[in-house]
Structure formats: C-alpha cells, structure tokens
Design brief:
Helix content: 55-70%
Strand content: under 5%
Largest sheet: none
Number of helices: 2
C-alpha cells in the first residue's frame, strides 16, 4: 500500500469522525463559535465587528452544511501545464553543443 493510499484512508477516517462530532454536538459547536466571536469583539473594542460577524456567519454556515451532509464547494483547481518531453526553447536545437545559443 502506497503512502498516498494511507493518507487518503486517514483523511476519510478523520472526515467520518468529524461528521460524527458535528452530528452529536453541532449545537454546542455553534454556541462556541458565537461566544468566540463575542470574546474577540470585546477584546478588540469592536473595531472589527463587521469582519468578525462575517467570519462567525461563515463558520456557522459551514457547520450547517456539514451537519446536513451537503458537500461544500470544492476549492478551485488549476490544471498544471502539460509538458512535452521533446519541447525546447526557441532557437534551441535540443543538442548540447556547448557553443551557447544559436543566432
């Protein structure tokens, strides 16, 4: 079994455990998120109230998504540029002559 297979299995197991915790204690987690937002607002003198509220809302939305078994939107992926084994730079013959670039 390859390392990648082991990592995938560990990730799957961790997600199952997280889902169970959210299912059992989602209300407590939501309360903790709210209390944390309030504590941070108090500590910062409410200077970042709008940003903290936005973060609390996003965290609660994600918690609800997870408890409803709705998959969150996957992060965008970028395709790696394809490399061709025989590609060369302009003016390069692909041969190592040691004479420098060709005119």
């Amino acid at each position: 079994m390859s390392l990648l297979d082991k990592l995938k299995r560990s990730r799957s197991k961790a997600k199952q455990q997280a889902d169970q915790v959210v299912e059992q204690h989602g209300d407590k987690i939501a309360g903790g998120i709210e209390k944390t937002g309030e504590a941070v607002n108090k500590a910062t003198g409410r200077r970042f109230d709008d940003k903290i509220d936005k973060g609390v809302s996003k965290a609660k939305e994600r918690l609800e998504q997870q408890s409803d078994d709705k998959p969150a939107a996957p992060p965008p992926t970028t395709a790696a540029p394809e490399s061709t084994p025989n590609s060369s730079a302009p003016g390069d013959t692909g041969k190592n002559t040691g004479a420098g670039p060709t005119p």
